[in-house]
Amino acid sequence: MKIGGECFMDKNKYITYLLLIFLLAFAVRTVKVLTKPIVCRDSILYVKMANYWADFGVNEAYNLNPNIPPVYVATLAMGQKYLGLRPEITGDIVGIVLGALLSLAVFFITFSLFDSCKLALIAALLAAVHPYLIRSSTTILRGAAYLPVLAFAIAFAVSAIKNRSLLKWCFFSMLLAVAAMTRHEGFFVLYVFFIWVIFELISSKQPFIQRLRYLVLSACFVFVIFFGIIYAVRVSLSDAKKSSWSNTDLLSMKFTGKIE
Known about the structure:
- This protein has 260 residues and is mainly alpha-helical.
- The chain is built from twelve helices and no strands.
- Helix 1 (11-35) packs antiparallel against helix 5, helix 2 (41-56) packs across helix 4 and helix 5 runs parallel beside helix 8.
């Protein structure tokens, strides 16, 4: 994602501002974790699952809850298994870092939509200090990873629409797959993508064959990469016989709107 337009002349200045906003987001989340850590029932579940995953394997972890998508718990487990960090410490680190990066994602989304660095910086600053986003980043919940990953997926999608880039649709689908394997709701972003395809097919001013070729290629890249990644992860979790999470879980409407 390139920074251009009004930013080009003052590129170094805007990059400095963006870096300061990132550091601010990082600092306020770090202070929040150190002064008032937030723990809830689901946090305890994820920590226990990560402990079991690291010590006894994935199947034992899914004995505790068979429906949890794997990415967040696996991240906590890997922190314990390979770095010797307690799952709650790994969760705090992931939340702080990704929460700070969320402000960058908001910057790129806003800039792609409005082509204004000043407006994008204001949006990034609001994301850095918004109380809900700070709380989300500093709680051991899947949302701490889900929101930033989804935001970057949307950033690539907006940029792909603006620049008609197949490569950025590939990045979008990869990040969306990670988001969907963090929270079930990530799958439903594909519906938004499908609506965009129909809208673009109807409203685009490009020649019909040219726009059809672009949309077909975009859809193929998105769906193949998205479901290919999820299938590969599902196969890698074949030892988790207790797990009921699968591609079909993503299609289940019972997860729509479910809040942790």
